[in-house]
Amino acid sequence: MEARITLLPGDGVGPEVVHEAAACLTAVAKAYGHRFHLEEALIGGAAVDATGDPLPAATLARCQASQAVLLGAVGGPAWDRHPRDQRPESGLLRLRRSLGLYANLRPVKVHPALEDASPLRPEVTHGTDLMIVRELGGGLYFGEPRSFSDERAVNTLPYTRTEIEQVARVAFELAASRRRRLVSVDKANVLETSRLWRQIVDELAPSYPTVQVTHAYVDSFAMALITRPRDFDVVLTENLFGDILSDEAAVLAGSLGLLPSASLGGPVGLYEPIHGSAPDIAGRDAANPIGTILSAAMLLRHSLRLETEALALEAAVDRVLKGGHGTSDLGGLKHQHGTRALGERIREAIRPPRAKGARLADSAYAWCGSPEGARSHL
Ligand SMILES: NC(=O)c1ccc[n+]([C@@H]2O[C@H](COP(=O)([O-])OP(=O)(O)OC[C@H]3O[C@@H](n4cnc5c(N)ncnc54)[C@H](O)[C@@H]3O)[C@@H](O)[C@H]2O)c1
Ligand SMILES: CC(C)[C@H](C(=O)O)[C@@H](O)C(=O)O
Ligand SMILES: [Mg+2]
Fold first, then answer.
1. CA of 30 to the centre of ligand 3 (A)
2. Cβ(221)–Cβ(122) under 8 Å?
3. pTM beyond 0.90, yes or no
4. Both 248 and 296 in a single domain?
């Protein structure tokens, strides 16, 4: 197939990790006989420096004209004092909103080769396989009124029935196609929007009779997530809670650099690692590219509907980790590499279709749960 994919490298380690993931997409295209047209555009601080706008109109137009977007990260100390609409992060938020993306899928798996990479005990983390479904288009990030002065600052946390229902349905569908457990995380003991959230999740539950639904308060859930992660399957939550809980969940996996994400809901999907621009290691060939490479696998699966190719890329990552290869953030692995060398190893591990020993679906990172389930409500 032919596909147009926009690359948004962004800031800090963004260009380094996107470079490796884009090369993986090219390698998949070659192995499987596709033509991917990869075109770069500016976003974030890089775009502010070049144009004064963290999401230039040309970038948005290019994203809208492609089938999928792969983003690295935005932000960094150079832009921290810029006014809000010229901050790199505001460009990313505008992009998510403009593309109509409301469901952010953040899978968290603990790879058997990385059980010693986490500060948590392997008895706790072993076998963890979660899907965090984070609402992405509403809540505190976008709520009005918002204001700032030296004496008083305001943010607002609104949610409408429609916003809650549409993301909750994605989570229910995913749960139905996975291990049929859904935990909805809120703060209904304090927040009105959380009360509505809980009410709507309960209203939807009878339509998904196979799914066992529970509710949890975000404070105690934050503890449960890292003390008994195997108890959870799909985790549904609002925008800010999902942001925080997914970084916390990275501790289970072994590094923030490992976790991918897919943002869905509109005609064009956005794929990005959950980490930021990592200014402390930027430009040193030290960033872990796996989160971005696994995001590229999600892109193949969700936007291009190339499930076998997605599995092939996930299997390549799996094989490289099993061989003891990683970046320096993955403590305990035998062979430590830079970003580029690890990316190259992963590319070389991509197997063409029907290759001997490909065993794609068996890899530790293989998607669990039918993407069709998620699609039916997107
Ligand atoms: N989606 C995004 O673009 C995104 C996400 C989060 C943060 N940010 C922005 O990034 C900037 C830095 O934020 P931060 O430092 O709080 O968070 P961060 O995620 O950039 O970094 C947190 C820690 O994790 C490490 N880390 C992150 N990615 C890594 C990787 N791929 N490999 C190895 N280690 C990795 C970093 O070195 C750092 O020690 C801020 O401007 C923030 O707003 C952007
Ligand atoms: C950079 C920031 C706006 C972003 C968010 O909060 O959504 C990031 O933390 C993320 O997790 O993608
Ligand atoms: Mg975040």
1. 33
2. no
3. yes
4. no
